[in-house]
Amino acid sequence: CQVKFASYTLQGSALTWWNSHMRAVGYDVAYAMPWAALKIMITDKYCPRAKVERYIDILSDMIHGSVKASKPQSMQKAIEFATEMMDKKMLTHVER
């Protein structure tokens, strides 16, 4: 049910990718896929680990270690955590 719902929300190249996958494995197999498997497939396809690591590597030294230690699973999570850390650092700096 989750896989079917999620597939209806795909757009653009993600929708094209999903349609190709469904044609390759069949509709029944595609929709019977566990939710966890679909999440892994989409993450691998659209947010490769190397891309997240490159983003973390260019962060300011002040927050680089904290973001890397959080082991974000997606680019969005890395950006959210980095933004939160920068906000905290800036607030601490302003309070001094």
From TrEMBL:
This is Reverse transcriptase domain-containing protein.
